Amino acid sequence: MSRLFKHLQNKLGRRFVIGVPYVWLLVFFVLPFLILLRISVTDMGSGIDPFAPLLDTSGGSWRLVLKLQNYLSVFTDAGPGNTIYVDAYKTSLKYALLTTLFCLVVGYPFAYFLARAKASIRPALLMLVMLPFWTSFLLRVYAWKGILADQGVLNNLLLWLGIINQPLVMLYTDVSMLVGMTYVYLPFMILPLYANLVKMDVRLLEAAHDLGASAWKAFWLVTVPLSKSGIVAGCMLVFIPAVGEFVIPSLLGGAENIMIGRVVWDEMFSSNNWPRAASVSVVMIVVILLPLAWYYRRTSGHLDR
Amino acid sequence: MKAISRFIEKNASHAWLGAVYLFLYIPLFFLIVFSFNSTRQDGVFTGFSLRWYAALLDDSRLVEGFFLSLKVALLTGTLSVILGSFAAFVLVRYTRFSGRTLFYGLVKAPLVMPEVIIGMSLLLLMVAVQRAIGWPDRGFITIVLGHTLLGMAYATIVIESRLSEMDRSIEEAAMDLGCRPMQVFFLVTLPNIAPALVSSWLLSFTLSFDDVVISEFLSGPGVTTLPQVIFSYARRGVNPSIYAAATLLIAAVSLGIIAYSVAMLRHQKRIDRDIRQAAL
Hints:
The structure holds 2 protein chains of 2 kinds. In chain A, 71% of the residues lie in helices and 0% in strands. By secondary structure, chain A is an all-alpha fold. Chain B is mainly alpha-helical. Chain B contains 11 helices and no strands. Chain B starts with a helix and ends with a helix.
C-alpha cells in the first residue's frame, strides 16, 4: 500500500517538476506568439482600438477572418520591394553584420591573448571583462553620447592634442552606432571565444612548429579552424540580438537609418497599428532568425553557451 | 630571431589587451568623472561639485523608479531561480517524457528572440487576457512576468550546467544511508547547486534591474522603472543626475564583486586547509 503511494507520489512529483516550467513557457512564450501570429492577419480595429476582435462573433456564429494584406504591404507599400520596412530590414542587417565583424576582429585577438595569459591572473582578467556587464547597459550607452558629442570629451581631447582643427561629427552617425553596438556586444563575442581557446591543446601548435610551420601559419591552419565552434557561437550571440536592437539606435543612431526594432515600436505606439507591427515582427523572425537558429543547431547543436 | 618574435608577440598582446580594456572602461570613467562636474557641460570638466548627487535625491521620478525597479528585480530574481531550477532539473534529470523536443526548444528560445518581439507579444497576451477577464492591469505584475520570462532562460542555463557537472553518486550514497528523496534534495542536491542558484539569482536580478525594452511594453500609466526614467531623460539630452546615479551603481557593483571575490578566496583557502589537514 505504502509502496503504491510512494509510486504515485514519485509520479506526481515528476509531473509537477516537468509541468511547472512547461506550462509557464506555453502560457507566456508560445501563447503570446500565437496571438502575435493571429493579430498579424487581422484588420485594425474601429476607432482607437488597435486591432479587430480575434474571433468575429457577429451574426451568431464564430468566424475566423484572415487578412494577408499586412504581409503584402510590408513588402510592397510604396512599390514592390521599396518600403520603409524593407529599408529597415536592410539597415538592421547592415548594422548587425558590421557589429559582428568588428566584435570578431577586436574580440578574437583579445580572447586569444587572454587565453594565453598566466593562469593565475586569468580569472581576474576575465572578471574585468564581465564587470561592465553588471553595471547598467543603458548608462554605458548613454555615456558614449557624452563622449562622442560635437562638444564632447573625445573632440575636445583631439582638438587639444592638435590632431584635428574642427570637431568631428560622430554622434548620430554610423560611427556612434557602430562604436555603441560593438561596445555593448563585445563581451558576448569574447566569452565564448575565450572558453573555446583556453581549452585548446597547446601541443598541437608545438607540433605544427616542429613540422616547420611559422607562428602565423600555425595560427591560421591550427588555432582558427579549431576555434570554429567558438567563432560561430560568438557571432550568433552578437548578431541575433543586434538585429533586433532598439535602445542603442534610439540613443546613438541617426534619423535616417531606422532599424526594424524601431519600426515595430513606432507601429505599436505612434501609429497604433498593431496588426502591422505584428506582421513586421513575424517577417523578422521568419526571414532572419529562423534560418540562423537552424544553421546554429546544425553546426554546433551540441555546443552549449 | 625567435626572441624577437616572442618580444613582439608579448608586447602586441599587452597592447591589444590594454586597448580593449580601455575601450570597455572609458564609459565608466566618463560617468564617474562627469558626475562630479560643477556644470551641465559634458565636454569639459569645469570643477568639482556634488550638486548632481543632491539633484538626484530630489528627483522623485528617479527615486520612485529606483524603488520600483528594486521590487521588480527582487521578485524577478526569485521567480526566475525557482522556474529555472525546475527547468534545469527537467533538462538534466528527466531525459524521457512526451513533448521533450518542444521543451528543449522552448527553454532557450527567449534568449534568441529580440526583446522588442518578446515585449510586444506579451503585451498582446496581457491585453487579450485583460479584455477577457478584466485583469491584470498593466504595471508591476506584467513587468515582473515579462522579466521572468527572460530571467528564467538565463537561470536555466546557469543551473543546468552546474547540475550536469554534479556527481550523482553522493545522492545515491545519501539514499543508501536512508535519506528520503525530499531529504536528499534539501540536504545534498540543493547545497551542491547553491552557488549556481546564487549566481543565476544575481544574473536575473541584474537583467531585470537593467531592462528597458520589455518594461516599456508592459508598464502602465504611472508605473515607470528606473531604466525607463533614465531612457526618457537620455533621449532628451544631457542630465548629469544620471551620471551620479550611474556612479553610485558602479560603486555598489564594484563593492559587491570585491566582497564576493574575497569571500570566495577565503572559502577556497579554507577548503585547501581542510584538504591539507585531512592529508596529514
